[in-house]
């Protein structure tokens, strides 16, 4: 799957004096300005070198000033970050013995494509840290990297999507805004029919596939205090009893057991390392009749054709869905798009059964601020001899 299609928030205040290529200056820092062809070596720089890929820092200039005083910052231009040029520069050692890679935004810095074994193999032995903004890392082979915060924002968005599947918000919004020959009739039809198919959330079972930071945040929001849902979950590793008690969460040892009891299934687990979907024709056949489905994880985890099949059936296993991520972003599966569109007919509009958004769940200013800061803190922690703040592949490190 392509890397996340999110774009940094436009209009953010840039770091004063920042330049679009190498050696971005910031207040209180004196990073060395370079040319695209200048080479580096461990002896040419008294400070550890950090390769900064992507846009300039926008939200945390004070931390970047500290960061730049500690390290020699090299920032390849957009042209140099294209895969052929970038690979060649790594092959030639043009950026020297850099100790870390810093990618402060998920919407830039990925021009070289997936960090697969081919690209990882070109990294110098000196590279110890890859700190990237974002909660997802399916665009990077973390095992290959090893062998050589977004939870709050995503959880808030997931709440809206869960509510949408119970209250048919896509249908309600479409009926109020979709241009038809008789808008009043469309409005009245939705007012009556959507009401008959909508339900309160309280008392229904919310099945979480994945109980990491995002899953735990969703559980806390949707549980007994706020929405009164019953929290069930499946994860490859069961969580401690204390956490289950706090969240009033019921564990299922298999995905099929979770699907059989869930009134709404939320996919909030990292992408699979083998690239295979988790939600397939076979797994969808195991869901509770009339269940709802929400995906705030990765589009590659879902067989979208199988999902459309289930939603299109009159007696299908799924009654509605909400998807923030898609398998071939920025393209939307045409069958799911049709299911998300209020369609005019000679009798009455066909209700929209799917809510679709544009990989927006983690996209808030606060999320960008946190990711940018955290990326720098991770690098400083490791290169200062400490532990990474938020490591994702310690189990692969030799």
From TrEMBL:
<feature type="domain" description="D-isomer specific 2-hydroxyacid dehydrogenase NAD-binding">
    <location>
        <begin position="195"/>
        <end position="345"/>
    </location>
</feature>
<dbReference type="InterPro" id="IPR006140">
    <property type="entry name" value="D-isomer_DH_NAD-bd"/>
</dbReference>
<feature type="region of interest" description="Disordered">
    <location>
        <begin position="1"/>
        <end position="46"/>
    </location>
</feature>
<dbReference type="InterPro" id="IPR050223">
    <property type="entry name" value="D-isomer_2-hydroxyacid_DH"/>
</dbReference>
<dbReference type="Pfam" id="PF02826">
    <property type="entry name" value="2-Hacid_dh_C"/>
</dbReference>
<dbReference type="InterPro" id="IPR036291">
    <property type="entry name" value="NAD(P)-bd_dom_sf"/>
</dbReference>
<feature type="compositionally biased region" description="Polar residues">
    <location>
        <begin position="31"/>
        <end position="46"/>
    </location>
</feature>
<keyword id="KW-0560">Oxidoreductase</keyword>
<dbReference type="InterPro" id="IPR029753">
    <property type="entry name" value="D-isomer_DH_CS"/>
</dbReference>
<protein>
    <recommendedName>
        <fullName>D-isomer specific 2-hydroxyacid dehydrogenase NAD-binding domain-containing protein</fullName>
    </recommendedName>
</protein>
């Amino acid at each position: 799957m392509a890397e996340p299609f999110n774009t940094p928030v436009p209009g953010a205040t840039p770091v004063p004096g920042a330049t679009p290529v190498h050696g971005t200056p910031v207040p209180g820092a004196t990073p060395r300005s370079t040319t695209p062809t200048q080479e580096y070596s461990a002896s040419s720089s008294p400070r550890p070198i950090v390769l900064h890929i992507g846009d300039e820092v926008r939200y945390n200039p004070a931390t970047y000033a500290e960061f730049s005083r500690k390290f020699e910052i090299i920032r390849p231009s957009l042209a140099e970050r294209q895969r052929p040029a970038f690979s060649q520069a790594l092959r030639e050692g043009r950026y020297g013995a850099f100790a870390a890679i810093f990618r402060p935004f998920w919407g830039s810095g990925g021009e070289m494509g997936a960090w697969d074994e081919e690209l990882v193999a070109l990294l110098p032995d000196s590279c110890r840290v890859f700190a990237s903004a974002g909660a997802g890392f399916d665009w990077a082979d973390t095992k290959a990297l090893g062998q050589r915060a977004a939870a709050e924002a995503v959880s808030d968005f997931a709440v809206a999507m869960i509510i949408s599947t119970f209250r048919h918000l896509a249908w309600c919004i479409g009926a109020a805004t979709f241009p038809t020959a008789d808008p009043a009739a469309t409005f009245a039809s939705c007012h009556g029919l959507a009401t008959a198919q909508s339900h309160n959330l309280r008392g229904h079972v919310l099945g979480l596939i994945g109980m990491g930071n995002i899953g735990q945040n969703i559980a806390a929001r949707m549980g007994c205090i706020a929405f009164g849902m019953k929290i069930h979950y499946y994860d490859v590793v069961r969580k401690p009893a204390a956490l289950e008690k706090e969240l009033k969460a019921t564990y299922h040892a298999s995905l099929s057991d979770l699907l059989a009891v869930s009134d709404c299934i939320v996919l909030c687990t990292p992408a699979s390392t083998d690239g295979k979907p988790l939600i397939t024709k076979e797994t969808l056949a195991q869901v509770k009749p009339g269940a709802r489905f929400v995906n705030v994880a990765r589009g590659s985890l879902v067989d979208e054709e199988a999902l459309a099949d289930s939603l299109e059936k009159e007696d299908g296993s799924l009654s509605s869905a909400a998807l923030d991520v898609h398998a071939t972003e920025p393209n939307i599966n045409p069958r799911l798009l049709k299911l998300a569109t209020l369609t005019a007919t000679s009798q009455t509009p066909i209700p929209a059964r799917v809510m679709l958004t544009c990989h927006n769940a983690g996209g808030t200013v606060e999320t960008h601020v946190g990711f940018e800061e955290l990326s720098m803190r991770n690098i400083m922690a490791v290169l200062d001899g400490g532990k990474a703040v938020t490591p994702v592949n310690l189990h692969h490190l030799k």
